[in-house]
Amino acid sequence: MRAIILQHAIFEGPGYILSWLHEQGIASDICFLYKPDSPLPNIESANLLIVLGGPMSIYDEEQYPWLTKEKELIKKAIENNIPTLGICFGAQLIADIFGAKVNSAPHKAIGWYPIKAESTSKRNCFHFPDHFTSLFWHKDEFELPEEATLLASSPICKNQAFQIKNHVIGLQFHAQTTPYHLQSMINNASLDLTNDPYIQPSQQLLSAPASFFVQSNQLIYNIISYLLLKCKRKRY
């Protein structure tokens, strides 16, 4: 099996996802979109697409010309029933592809915040824990695509997770976070840590209990396992 990971910034890597893929014996190709002339991968032979976060906005095509082609690649993957997971900016890209608005959030949010599962009558949807805590690091937010089911929400930013059909899930939060990954984000995006109501200082971010990381990483494990199991299109 083969996973393709789209990475938008040097400091926003796959974190725990990469370790999990290696443990499962799934080959991974990381496309570093922030590098000049980095070619987009061939999606047709992939079993899984993971679209990571980034500091840019989905409308920044002029500054990041590769965004247009990236959106086309994500759309092609979804149309071909390839399991697709979008994280933060990645989820915003998916929402945009499905015609939903992506705007500046009322509150820029950086920190460990509670999230709750949304009840749904759809039997085939992924089910989140009733309550959990994960890392927020975003300035924009997505509206819910018409085809999507809301799976998780928070008081700070309502739409935290959605699902489209059986094979597409978008997360506004960073469940792939490891201590190393978080330190890298702090080191490279320290200017984001302003004195705003929903922005926690670096010391507070790094002193989060180990259970926050463990629960978030277990969630990523469960989500990717679900996507691979539910997808009707198997590639080997």
UniProtKB/TrEMBL annotation:
Q: What sort of enzyme, by top EC class, is this?
A: hydrolase
| Domain Glutamine amidotransferase intervals | 35-179
A GO MF annotation of the entry reads:
hydrolase activity
Under InterPro entries, the record lists: ChyE-like, Class_I_gatase-like, GATASE
List the EC numbers from the record. 3.4.-.-
SUPFAM superfamilies, per the entry:
Class I glutamine amidotransferase-like (SSF52317)
Q: Which UniProt keywords apply?
A: Glutamine amidotransferase, Hydrolase
- Determine the domain of life of the protein's source: Bacteria
Q: Specify the protein name.
A: Type 1 glutamine amidotransferase
